[in-house]
Specification:
The protein is of the alpha/beta class. The chain has 2 domains: 193 residues, 3-Layer(aba) Sandwich (Rossmann fold), CATH 3.40.50.300; 113 residues, 2-Layer Sandwich (Hypothetical Protein Yjia, Chain: A,domain 2), CATH 3.30.1220.10. It contains 10 helices and 13 strands. A 7-stranded parallel β-sheet has the order 4-3-5-2-6-7-8, with helices on both faces. Strands 1-12-11-10-13-9 form a 6-stranded mixed β-sheet, sandwiched between helices. The protein is globular. Belongs to the SIMIBI class G3E GTPase family. ZNG1 subfamily. It comes from Youngiibacter fragilis 232.1. One of its GO terms (molecular function) is nucleotide binding. It catalyses: GTP + H2O = GDP + phosphate + H(+). Pfam families: cobW (PF02492), CobW_C (PF07683).
Length: 335
């Protein structure tokens, strides 16, 4: 198991200052990623936004469609089958920071429609990338007209929706409202945690899709649970949400996590949460992609704020939700 304990995500090494926030725009082929990137560029006002274009082909085209000066568009080209694309992208981000990091206000990374989303998200837990950058949000674009077909036929499309912090159902002008409703319900069945936004031509309020805070995400999940809405759909990927209002025993939780990752880690595409530990005034944050995770004290609980522990797990072939909730609740502090 790989464990990465980080300091505050919004602060980098003392000598380098704040981490650079990165918005990763993923989604299947033809979903409108470049159009959305250009919309976010237009909405960025005077801030310095650079774009990384992840291109699979030997000839890059998408970078020519990005509305920025050439020196602010950085192409990461297709890779050989003999090289690890995640390792090469790690090196690319590292060298990019050394050259331009002090000038970035933020970065948009447009991924290829065939990139594995877990490789992209996992990067921000690793080594120097984690020191210099932070993942603001992973956005999955889904086309309203062909989205259901893509989800039916391509596992990579399902994984993109499942790992997303935000899903933008784009091109809603090309599908009737009933179709879009059905598509949204299906995506919610896979990913209870994602914020789902509908759009035409990739145009959405940037505040709805960039830099989505973990607390904000989990509060939305808790709101859905309070409304009695649960995420069980037709797909092989689904969401389990676990909650506990009693303070948790830190040692028991650590043992519970270790056991969960050892037994089920390969099935857990993405998991997030925060803990209220007995004897601590801080809220502890937790995030993971498969077995790679990090945890840290996030901030102090605020006066009047409900102290609770919430874990959301997205994956396939997951344990029975009731049994998992029972084992989670057994970690409550007994006094």
């Amino acid at each position: 198991m790989h464990e990465h304990i980080h300091r505050d995500d919004k602060e980098g090494p003392a000598s380098k200052g704040p981490k650079v926030p990165v918005t990763v725009i993923g989604g299947f082929l033809g979903s409108g990623k470049t159009t959305h990137v250009n919309h976010l560029i237009r909405a960025s006002d005077d801030t310095r936004v650079d774009v990384i274009v992840r291109e699979f082909g030997s000839i890059s085209i998408d970078d020519l469609l990005v509305h920025l000066p050439k020196e602010r568009v950085h192409v990461f080209p297709g890779v050989s089958m003999h090289h690890d694309p995640q390792l090469m992208l790690y090196g690319f981000l590292d060298s990019l920071y050394e050259r331009y990091g002090k000038t970035f206000d933020s970065v948009l990374m447009e991924s290829s429609g065939l990139d594995k989303p877990e490789d992209l998200v996992q990067l921000f837990f690793l080594g120097d990338v984690a020191k210099n950058y932070r993942l603001g949000s992973y956005i999955a674009m889904v086309s309203a007209d062909y989205g259901s077909l893509d989800l039916d036929e391509y596992r990579i499309a399902r994984e993109q929706a499942a790992l997303a912090d935000v899903v933008i159902i784009n091109k809603t002008d090309l599908a009737d409202e009933a179709e879009v409703d059905k598509l949204e319900e299906r995506i919610r069945g896979m990913n209870m945690m994602a914020r789902i936004v509908r759009a035409k031509f990739g145009e959405v309020d940037p505040r709805m899709v960039t830099d989505i805070g973990l607390h904000e995400q989990l509060e939305e999940v808790c709101g859905r649970l309070m409304e009695g809405r649960r995420a069980f759909g037709m797909d092989d990927i689904r969401t389990i949400a676990l909650t506990e209002t009693r303070p948790m025993d830190k040692e028991k939780v650590n043992a519970w996590l270790q056991n969960l990752f050892m037994k089920e880690g390969t099935k857990m595409l993405r998991s997030k949460g925060f803990f209220n530990f007995q004897g601590f005034d801080e809220r502890f944050e937790f995030q993971a992609v498969r077995k790679t995770f990090h945890s840290k004290a996030d901030r102090k609980w605020e006066g009047g704020e409900e102290r609770k522990s919430v874990i959301v797990v997205i994956g396939e072939g997951l344990p029975d939700e009731k049994l998992l909730q029972e084992s989670f609740s057994e970690c409550a502090y007994q006094g």
